[in-house]
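Write out this protein's structure.
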Amino acid sequence: MRVFVYLLSALALCQAYDYKEVLRDSILFYEAQRSGKLPSDQRVTWRKDSALNDKGQKGEDLTGGYYDAGDYVKFGFPMAYTITTIAWGIVDQEAGYNSASALADARKLIKWGTDYFIKAHVSQNELYGQVGQGDVDHAYWGRPEDMTMSRPAYKIDTSHPGSDLAGETAAALAAASIVFQSADSGYASTLLTHAKQLFDFANNYRGKYSDSITDAQSFYASGDYKDELVWAAVWLYRATNDNTYLTKAEQLYNDFGLGNWNGGFTWDQKISGLQVLLAKIKGTQSYKDKVQGYCDYITTSQQKTPKGLVYIDQWGSLRMAANAAFICAQAADLGINAASYRAFAKKQIDYILGDTGRSFVIGYGTNPPTHPHHRSSSCPDAPAVCDWNAYNSASPNVHVLTGALVGGPDSSDNYKDERSNYISNEVATDYNAAFQGLLAYLIKNNL
């Protein structure tokens, strides 16, 4: 018995950070990003109802969903990626969520997004993909509750296609249907109906969404739609076990030559995500080889900062590291270099949570960020005025944006906690997505 207690104590000492707390905090961050009429159980109480007049071009109700980052545009493409990725984490790491007592709140997180996507899917071949105008929105620094600017809505349809947007939204709804299958089978069925329609729309009317919704080009321009089409088909297969979708996924994968694409996983790049899922579903060596090639490169050859962060891009450097680690953790579960990939994943999370002497998650750990580039948390409660003076203030944000992952340091580990530095210090819904799933993975595997 004494040996057992000693081993438990040693394990606790090895895990320097409370992954369960950070997972719960990450879910809380999404409550701060909610748009629309807030529910009675809203825990981020400094946020109130906002954007209650968001409407489509024919007056359709487009309230709800999530604000993108430190601003108030609802960009459908990264929002859908966020929901797909968080749902993926719940589907495959549910034990981690249960262990953290976070599953019920995680389902609420998903539903806040999927309820909005259902509203935005106004007809079989018609999907609203953005509410708010980027430059106009970014000229405003204040509370979302006080917005008075015009918030136009932009959509894709058969004349203005967007296979990437429709495909990613289909993937989000399909993945979410798995999350809700045991908890609310009726809702899961509704999600699946919309997912199937959106996949057909994406496949039958091909094109890049940012060619149709041109306001998105300066913010979330799509590189290609081919990976999202395959991604959607893979998720529909996982949700339905209908081999038609798996056959379509592999056919498109081969037709598009996706095996020749460079790996990666972001809001615009699904290639490594779909390869690891196909490897899991099929067990085919060619898919495993692609995943291993990506993760071997990431873990051994990709640039690292002096303190050990895998450095992929200056924009959201921590997000990029967490995304890569999430993929390689999935690869470890396939039996590919399991020990080294898991160690890599844990190292990236621990860097984020404090191994450099500071935390990069707001409200958690040692010396966390206090000046995120985030409008609503920088504003005092109404009726106090909030404007660009709040942006220029040297004071910490008035409200703690608990759980948000900031952009992160540069390639030399340099980081300044400054509101004006939106590269290093903005937050975004997609930043926390794979990060959250990776936390659940580490919890589930007692790493």
